[in-house]
Specification:
Blueprint lengths: L10 E5 L2 H8 L5 E4 L13 E8 L7 E7 L6 E4 L9 E5 L2 E3 L14 E3 L27 E3 L7 E2 L5 H6 L17 H14 L10 E6 L12 H20 L2 H15 L7 E2 L2 E2 L3 H8 L5
């Protein structure tokens, strides 16, 4: 949603990948999760629990999110969300290009800005896009008012609906996770790790801020869980079968092959493995449970 850029509210720049900008444009993204401001908590995420929201003594409009240390019940940590609260604004920073090159940026003409998320024909050949981190305010086109206060939560507590609202339908297929996860959660978990995996991976289950905003004006699409499942089925199936080939199952296959091949000779093989040995058969049948 676009708003008056002169509106006197807290405004925070936030980087969106090209895929996430496209998800927002199609009405598939209405929430984004960020860890900025929770660094102290995420040093030991399992040692803290969220208690309540308080206010500063001087200003009642500034909220403090209170956490309690599980080993030291009287140790309370109060954190202010760097993104603000309901009514404050996220200024989207995305990959872009300015016609004429960097030497003409001083002109600050929004009409000369091209956005990578808008796939189309450009007036010139674009060989080098400017990273989103270097987007100026005058070049930004999306200003997203928060529609709710961000209450901190653990990453793995994300619901299938929230994962879908993150724009999962446009994310690349994710790595296989627990069987209890839905398609949208699997895809979101993989995409999260592709961005945050080095510092705050999914397996760490860090604390994060869920930042919610309105759906893009004019967009009516919503993530379809069934179609997303069909889209990721092939990738998930292959990863699941690969994971099933555990060390124990493999050792069983090797032992079975050795027993089977004892005393045999002139056995036809494909790729060095006898066609009628247990290892070859389980590869054909995609079944390691023998």
């Amino acid at each position: 949603m676009s708003i008056d850029k002169k509106q006197p509210v807290k405004e925070t720049g936030i980087m969106f990948s090209t895929v996430m900008v496209q998800a927002y444009q199609q009405g598939l993204k209405t929430v984004t999760r960020r860890t900025w401001g929770l660094e102290k908590i995420n040093k030991e995420p399992d040692k803290w629990r969220y208690l309540y929201t308080a206010y500063t003594e001087k200003r009642k409009d500034i909220k403090l999110y209170c956490f309690e240390h599980l080993d030291y019940p009287y140790k309370i940590l109060r954190i202010k969300c760097p993104y603000g609260g309901k009514g404050d604004v996220l200024r989207v920073k995305e990959t872009w290009y300015y016609y004429g090159g960097d030497e003409y940026l001083y002109q600050q003409i929004p009409e000369n800005v091209v956005y990578k998320a808008d796939k189309g024909e450009y007036r010139v050949q674009i060989d080098h896009w400017r990273p989103s981190i270097f987007m100026f305010r005058w070049a930004s086109r999306y200003f997203l008012p928060l529609i709710a206060d961000p209450i901190p939560e653990r990453l793995q507590n994300i619901t299938p609906e929230d994962a879908a609202d993150e724009g999962a339908e446009l994310m690349p297929p994710g790595e296989l996770r627990e069987e209890s996860l839905t398609a949208s959660q699997i895809v979101f978990a993989g995409y999260w790790d592709s961005i945050n995996g080095k510092k705050y991976p999914w397996s760490m289950n860090p604390w994060e801020w869920p930042l919610r905003f309105e759906r893009f004006e004019g967009a009516t699409q919503k993530c379809n869980e069934e179609s997303l499942r069909e889209w990721t089925d092939d990738c998930i199936f292959k990863k699941r079968k690969a994971c099933q080939a555990t060390e124990e199952s493999f050792q069983k296959a090797v032992r079975g092959w050795r027993v089977y091949c004892q005393g045999k000779s002139d056995i036809g093989d494909i790729g060095g493995v006898p066609t009628d040995c247990p290892i070859f058969q389980c590869q054909v049948n995609r079944d390691w449970s023998f």
